[in-house]
Each structure stands twice: as C-alpha cells, then as structure tokens.
Input
Amino acid sequence: MTSTPLTPRERKIARRLAARGRGALFECLRRLRGVRMRERFELGELRAVGGEGAIFTVRDRGDGTSRLLGKLPIVPWDRPIRLTSKILRAARAVVEGEARILTVAGCPYLPHCEGLQQFDNPLLESARGGEFARPEPCLVMERIGGQDLDTWLCRVHRGTLDPQRVRATLDRVVVGVLQALTDLEQRGFVYADLRPGNLRIVGRPRRRVRLIDAGGVVRADGSGTRFPHVPSYLPPDVFCAEQKGRAIVATPALHAAMAGRALYEVATGEAPQAARELDSERLAASRVSSAVAAVIDALARGGHPACSSGLSALAQRARRRVRGAGRVREET
Output
C-alpha cells in the first residue's frame, strides 16, 4: 500500500467500510493511488465508494492540475477467490455504459467527459486470463465544485437567514433543477436516480444546478432494463407496482413525478417517504413561493407530462406576476 498519509476523507471512508466488515477492500483501493494511465493521468485521493464504482481524484500530469475525477468499477477486490471474469465484465460494462451516456448525451449539466482511460490493474492476476488480462477501464470526467444539494438544504432549512432571501434562493434552485432535467429530456434521456444527493449546487449568487452521477441516466423511451433509483422518490403507484415485480419503464412523465418529489425536499427540507403521497399542506406552508409550491405539487401528482411542462408552468406564472405588478403600479 502507498505510504502517502490518509486524508480526512479517506479516513472517513475507511471507517465506513470497516464498519461493514470491508476494511480489506479499502486497503485494496488505496493501492491504486499513484497509478498512471497512458502517462497523462494519475489516480490520487480516494473520494467515495459506492455500489457500482469507486471515485478517485485524477491529476492531469500535462498541466499538473487535479480538477478531474476517475470512476472505477467496484468488485470484491478483497475477495479474489470469489472474483470471476463474469463479475469483472458486468462491473466494467456499467462504467463503460456511463462513459457512452456522457459522450452521446452531451448535456452541459452533466460532468464533461475525458473518456475512458485504461491501466494495468495491480489488484488482478493477469495470468488467470479472460477479463483478468484486460486493462482496467477508468472513466475520467470533470470534477464539479460546490456542494451536494442535500447537504446545502440542511444548512438552508436549519439556518436563520432572512425568509424572503431564502424564498428567492430556493425558487431559483427549483428552476435550476427543472432546467437541467428538461435539457436532459430534450436529448432523449431521464435521470432515473433523481434525488438531492445526486444534484450539485455551484456558484453564488445564481446557485446553478449540475447533475453529478451519469450512472443514474437512462434513455427516455423505456428501451433500457436498468432504472437505478431510491424508492422514496418514486410515485407511490410505481413503487407499489415494482414491489409486485413489475419493471419500471422510463418515461418523461415518470421523470416529472420524481422531480416533484425531489423538489418537495428542496421546498420543505424533508425527504419524501416511500409509498406515501406528499403532504400538500406542508408544501403550501414551505419556504418557496406559492407559485413554485403549486407547480411542485402538480409535478409530484402526475399533473405534468414532462419536466419541460413544469418549467413552462413556472414561466407562465412568472409572466402573470409581472403583468399583475405592472397593473398595480399603473393604478397607483
């Protein structure tokens, strides 16, 4: 293992994996620090470990910067006797598919993709042949700054900021989320794993929204079989149907309903609960404007066929408010 001291983030990851009995997996992943890909990119700090991938910082040796991230397929590196070519192939296919999505979609709200890079994986015995002899793929992509939306919401809803300022900021965030999701829809995709933890708030004061996990993006025509998601953000009828064994079909209408449930958390600071309708009274009394609350409620209840429809409804309400304010000024 590398002698480089652990960073605070790596210590946190190590504790989490150790608590799950996977401390050896952390030690394996740490061995990848310093690995070079095509002499240009170099793996750095371990940033996160999820169900489908491990995220590292990546240094571009060409300009010496570390503004990139690398995503590697996650497999039981710590249990080599259980590792097979089939497991490796399936895990690599997920990362390779994510790279294709980033390249084909071309959505500016997703991370910019530097493509798939490869390296000889020191954790594998290439003599076993098959997938073990193949170079390891690593998806190198833009490292988006800012804060995860769920973390940012905790600060906003628990803080003591001026209510009018909070309302204006949250309204902008709602619009920003719908703009990002609408752009993705117009390119033929939906964000299946839609939740505040997969959204990023960037910059001040505009609070731009970015989508950080392309692994949650699927085609909007229902042609795919994957639909990664968190059950709480599914509409109750879809959740119940899935529990009975029915496959989830990706559509813009489902995307819009999931957006409504995610935006309910933006408005109220409370996460939705699986299989339960949202509390409309709680939403109406939340910290967003009444016009925004009404659109969120309509989205969540299936009142819009796509996120673009919800965005248009917000724009129409905004125009009516501007015309109404103009008439008041004329009368006074």
